[in-house]
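Title: Request for sanity check on Olfactory receptor prediction

Description:
We are preparing a figure and want to confirm that the structure record we downloaded matches what your pipeline produces today. Could someone re-run it with the sequence below and paste the raw structure tokens into this thread? We only need the token string, no images.
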Amino acid sequence: MQLNNNVTEFILLGLTQDPVRKKIVFAIFLIFYLGILLGNLLILATIKTSRALGSPMYFFLFYLSLTDTCFSTSIAPRMIVDALLKKTTISFSECMFQVFTFHFFGCLEIFILILMAVDRYVAICKPLHYTTIMSHRVCGVLMALAWVGSCVHSSAQIFLALSLPFCGPNVIDHYFCDLQPLLKLACADTYVTNLLLVSNSGAICTVSFVMLMVSYVIILYSLRNHSAEGRKKALSTCISHIMVVILFFGPCIFIYTRPATTFSTDKMIAVFYTIGTPLFNPLIYTLRNAEVKNAMRMLWNKKLVSDDQR
């Protein structure tokens, strides 16, 4: 379908065209991206090496950190490099690949957050059956289904993108390729594509957010029957999850439930879920989780001991 288009590359306008501001964008987002890599890789290493973090919750947290790393990597490196260039172009095939990876890892994050909510529901509301319901095999199957579902979603996005004819304008008023800015460049009626986008991305974001918030309300309500210590620990975990859900889904719902209209603030709002969420997730899950902090401390002590022995 690419051969039917006159456009072979797109120009990304980025967050700003001002030379001074572009340098500021470069410095700030380079720091942010390095923070994302450091925080999420630290969580990955901690969970992988710690026997104390072998529960299903940390199994899903491992994949959430992995997904955050890949999600931000699909956007941030190119965004940072483009901030140093006068003219930033991206080929048609690279643009389509970015659409696929962005939606794949974004959808995967949604599914993992849902699985984490399911895990907390079973752990708090059905503690006696927790190990049976959330066995390693069940967790593995659920994660595999999440990957398959994400692949289906991102494939649908690519199908919609490739169905758009591009015959003239090739300037994307954004810092990455996504369907909304591409729709503005299509030289055809995009009404049906808009509806499909809302029914796909918009529905996934909205329905998932409602499901998650309802599930956490049920979980928090059920805590009234627990002991004070158990209630405090469960409440701390659930609040961390709720903070992540709001940070991620709030901007996503704002963007993907009204794709026919674009605002000047869309680019800055997109920063919240493309860069902000992967950056804040490690902080939220470590600062509010004593088990993760203790495991990180033990990992650091082991490293110091091994260095001293050398």
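Thanks, this matches our download. The first strand starts at residue 9 and ends at 12.
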